[in-house]
Amino acid sequence: MSRIIHVYGNWKMNHLKSDVINFISKLSESVIELDCKQGVCPQSIHLSMIIEAFAKKGILVGSQNCSHEAFGAFTGDNSPQALKDIGVNFTLVGHSERRSIFNEGHEILNLKAKKALECNLDVVFCVGETLEERENNKTFDVLKEQLAEGLKGISKSDLSRVILAYEPVWAIGTGKVATPMQAEETHQFIRKFVSEELEFIAEDVFILYGGSVKPSNAKGLFEMANIDGGLVGGASLKAEDYLELCKIADRTMK
Ligand code: PGA
What is the DSSP letter of 5? Predict the structure, then answer.
């Protein structure tokens, strides 16, 4: 059987209510006949709208972030348990914007991943190096640390609900996409590392690529043996582009 290609859209802090309504209405029936795995991560204030529209159509709904605790005095945070309760399927943890703008380090990300899994939310755990780290040949060391520290103490059965996303910081929102070979080499490294050093099962773990994925470059990336789809920012905002990416993913699986 061929691998399942994922197309997960990360809308970040974009879209007004009218844009969300527009996206929902443009996603035609044909989407649900596609075999690729689809997901969308809107802002939290739009989660309920997306759940209502997509939950029964097999499109997964993700949160872009969640709290490290289920409940309590954490003003402004979203409880993973409450997210699960309204029908959210998964949450991103460790997106580079959370790491750099909100100063989220290994410790808090590890707590978030654990709490999300405990509350039955699946996790898309994001890792990636900066341009400076790549130029100094530190890519693999950075990834090893982010993975080992961020996922430590998570049981083998919980790890089976963790998808990894490799998102080189220099490629996010910059229009500079990693070449398929560059991404493949890194994905191969990640797959080997997490199965040898953490308790992932090499052939079962999904590793998505993120960083300026768009319809014009998706095919080359999705065709790579170790790339199981994309975590897509900018190109997932428009329903037409998102749909096109899903169709490309679907063709790649055939
Ligand atoms: P981009 O963002 O596709 O706009 O580069 C990807 C991401 O940040 O997840």
Answer: P
